[in-house]
Specification:
GO molecular function: DNA-binding transcription factor activity; sequence-specific DNA binding
Largest sheet: 5 strands, antiparallel
Number of strands: 5
Structural class: alpha+beta
Distance between the termini: 76 Å
CATH topology of the largest domain: N-terminal domain of TfIIb
Oligomer: single chain
Protein name: Probable WRKY transcription factor 12 isoform X2
Radius of gyration: 25 Å
Organism: Nicotiana tabacum
Strand order of the largest sheet: 1-5-4-3-2
Keywords: DNA-binding, Nucleus, Transcription, Transcription regulation
Helix content: 10-25%
GO cellular component, one term: nucleus
Number of domains: 2
Amino acid sequence: MEGDHQERVETLDPKAIIDQNCSGNASDGNNSWWRSSPSEKGKVKVRRKLREPRFCFQTRSDIDVLDDGYKWRKYGQKVVKNSLHPRSYYRCTHSNCRVKKRVERLSEDCRMVITTYEGRHNHYPCDDSNSSENDCFSSF
């Protein structure tokens, strides 16, 4: 044994590592991002993307895309593991509206449609029956 030398081993939380600012190069010996002391934690600025609120609805329907009053553009489709039905992705077509919609069928009951909205619209819904297309795209 080599005298009184003790090795200190700590368990790192993977989330803590991801949240840290890991701009250093591992080969340059500057690994201070994982050795930070409590006084240094206040100095680290972490930019986190704010997650948009999500709303989920289950509806019994034979059609996948239900009319919710907004206009949507399909931008993707993905095969879902353990499901016979694909998941479709939509964006609101209104300018400067960043709302997304995800539509899929419940794997246990294919008559149920799960619609998940991410974000909040910054405009009113479009009523096709008594308004022109230009009225649909006017913000409040």
